[in-house]
Model the fold of this input.
Amino acid sequence: MKLLIKKATIVSPTSPLNGTIKDIFIVNGIIKKIAANITEKASKTIEQKGLCISMGWVDIFAHFCDPGLEYRETIETGLAAAAAGGFTDVCVLPNNSPVTDNKSQVEYIKQKATTYAVNIHPIGAITKNAEGKELAEMYDMQNSGAIAFSDGINSLQSSGVMLKALQYVRAFDGTIIQLPDDKSIGANGIVNEGIVSTQLGLPGKPTMAEELMVARDLKLARYTDSKIHFTGISSFKSLEYIKRSKETGIKVTCSIAPYSLFFTDEDIKTYDTNLKLNPPLRTEKDRQALIKGIKNKTIDCIASHHIPQNWDGKTCEFEYAKNGMIGLETLYSCLQTTLTDLPVEQLIEMLTTNNRKIVGLPIPQIKEGEIACITLFNPNTTYTFDETMIKSKSKNSAFIGQKLTGKVIGIINGDKIEMN
Done:
């Protein structure tokens, strides 16, 4: 197939072509020519005012629920949502049924996704059944294609088990991903502990539950000299700890969920169950701290925290609703809408090179002779997000009805193309 992209602004901080407007000619998945004006005939031409391209985006924390929880999401619908969100690569959580805690489960996920435009990368469980008690077969899973290790939505509570895990993965330079949440603090909390939780009469979860876990794991990472990535950071204190640790040479990176930039705990006054999340929505002070953390590069990347929940899981009283929101399809628009003064190169870095370095994925280039791995987007398009746009099997998004800026046009991954 011959594909021609016309008049696209290349956004690629690592490329000499960054910021230039070029035509790109792709033949059978290979970039054959990049020039100011290409006249070759193509079977498909993509042209749009304001069109930008970058290397393919990566998400490092998405739940596809397959196997065992297919009523919420399947690999097929999850990959469709990822493609619609501009992602060529997605790292998927192990919290399936059965849990991805052995090599056969890793191989099942990889084999089931071989024919799609989006590359899938299983995250192996740190512990058996993601229960936090006994280490899983991480070396075997790594050999079978596990990209990193995490107990996913189950924060690893035991200091001793985390220490062993960090020591274990160091042998093959693996990365541990932790959602920091000390469950013994605010054990019954469902929203941020503060003025709003008091006003609504809902049990609160203090930021201390996150901050203590971050502090503990930073000490363990320093002791073992291993790589740790915190996801779902929501507290300004956690960011301070991480910033200081980076300055002292600890191998730590962190990401935030996009919804933490868009919403605060004030928004839960509507009792929208789609806003029942973990980490919970914090205060405006925390939201501003996250924006500052992005600008000063303490925050390395954005993770979708794509957690599908079926209708029954959300259509109930707030207290009984399941945690989570789908996030792949609105992630870029959320960033473009909230980070209005952030240079586009820095925004794209948080979706491409930074993510790839964290989990050890190769960094593709936009240059002649390379396999195409490209995301197409338009940062100036404004639209209202509608439920009919959702490709995910579940519809639990608080962004429905929100006016957003920045839209994904499609992805090109080798000879596979997905357009919105």
Q: What stands out?
A: The mean pLDDT is 96. The longest helix spans residues 208-224.
